[in-house]
Amino acid sequence: MGQLDLRYLVEPGGRLRGRLRVPGDKSISHRSIMLAAIAEGETRISGFLEGADALATLHAFRRMGVRIEGPDQGQVWVRGVGLRGLRASDRPLDMGNSGTSMRLLAGLLAGQSFPVTLVGDDSLSKRPMRRVTEPLSAMGARIGTTPAGTAPLTLEPTTGLQGIDYPMPVASAQVKSSLLLAGLYATGETCVTEPAPTRDHTERMLTAFGYSVRRRAARVCLTGGGRLTGCRLSIPADISSAAFFLVGASIAPDSDLLLEGVGINPTRVGVINILRAMGGDIELLERRLAGGEPVADIRVRHARLRGIRIPVDQVPLAIDELPAIFIAAACAEGETLLTGAEELRVKESDRIQVMADGLTRLGIAVETLPDGMRIQGGTFGSTEADTTGRHEAIETHGDHRIAMSFAMAALRAQGPIAIRDCANVRTSFPGFVDLAASVGLDIHEHQA
Ligand code: S3P
């Protein structure tokens, strides 16, 4: 019997109004478990994302002997075991769909005295891992991949890692974080230089756990052999999840939405900068700090958007939000051009091709580029049978962000939009359908 397919059917039109809080930040949730586990003493976490990706990280540490209670309504309690207290798991650690779990754990586990194998689902098993295994090997790690440089990753015990001074060839927070986490176990200093700023949650959170991290311009360094001390962490709502609502409210006439407690770390706010440059009406209210991270309530109202050339320096700051931004671009007046985003091709799906196929399916004129896309603003059709008799649903290729992006497109579509392969929305945004419906999206899910 074939696997059931979770589908969305989204009715056209409507508007988004009211207030809501999207779930906790995925990047920060992963790091909270990792650092709490290797800290000394207890850590209490609130606002933890109970999505499959962050839970994969949590379960991995339980398998390595860490006592963790929860999550219970976003509350997690971790009894840290210290840098050297992790134990071998009796089976491979399953990272599911989560690239962050696999790449960060490769670094954190590279210097352990026990062997470990990291496995993932079909999508994760196709994603490039040499970007972490090569510099980790240069530090003295013994890591195997498939001949294609993909998972499973097999880590052999090491007698010790050496610090590294690494200029990153791609702007990747996962690579930076992986090396910094390995650096905790290395002798001497580990430094990573970024070609462009990427999310700095690892650096901020290490500091919150009392570990010294030094930054000078694009170079970030730490010295191995220190200790982390358990603490309290409060995780902001995920701007990457808020992004669907920022776009939905921007494109749907008469929308007015308040998104509560969203993380607005400067390394993550590309979606706000880009939507504003397109004419978006976005206000940041009640700015404050939560757990070392800046947070605000975000008010977004409908606006007439115009196409822009997306500034290349905004790309790493909006890397996960670009699928949603493509939906905004399709509703804008004129052309939007994105370049410098080749990384989109190696996310949970090839997000350039998969978004281009879906947009084309809905009647939007696009041109794919090796590193981006050209999108001509237009009108979304529908996935209902058209004059050619086609009525296939939008294909997400199992990518959560593709599914949620096209759900928002329905707000401006001429007919219903059907979207298939949506089960992975649970990796980052459990409860998406109910939350979106509560502010006005006419969305229903069903198994087909
Ligand atoms: C993440 C970094 C980004 C992002 C991913 C989460 C992180 O990946 O796309 O969803 O938590 O460090 P890259 O580092 O590969 O750009």
From TrEMBL:
Q: In which pathway does it act?
A: Metabolic intermediate biosynthesis; chorismate biosynthesis; chorismate from D-erythrose 4-phosphate and phosphoenolpyruvate: step 6/7
Which terms under GO biological process does the entry name? Answer: amino acid biosynthetic process; aromatic amino acid family biosynthetic process; chorismate biosynthetic process
Q: Which UniProt keywords apply?
A: Amino-acid biosynthesis, Aromatic amino acid biosynthesis, Cytoplasm, Transferase
Residue positions binding 3-phosphoshikimate: K26, S27, R31, S172, Q174, D320, K347
* Enzyme Commission (EC) number: 2.5.1.19
List residues of the Enolpyruvate transferase domain. 10-434
The annotated active site, in chain numbering, is D320
Coarsely, its chief localization is: cytoplasm
Where along this sequence does the record place binding of phosphoenolpyruvate? K26, G99, R127, Q174, R351, R401
Entry-linked InterPro entries: Enolpyruvate_Tfrase_dom, Enolpyruvate_Tfrase_sf, EPSP_synthase, EPSP_synthase_CS, RNA3'P_cycl/enolpyr_Trfase_a/b
Location comes to: Cytoplasm
Which family is this sequence assigned to? Belongs to the EPSP synthase family.
**Cited HAMAP family:** EPSP_synth (MF_00210)
The subunit field of the Swiss-Prot or TrEMBL record says:
Monomer.
Q: What is this protein called?
A: 3-phosphoshikimate 1-carboxyvinyltransferase
Origin species: Thiocapsa imhoffii
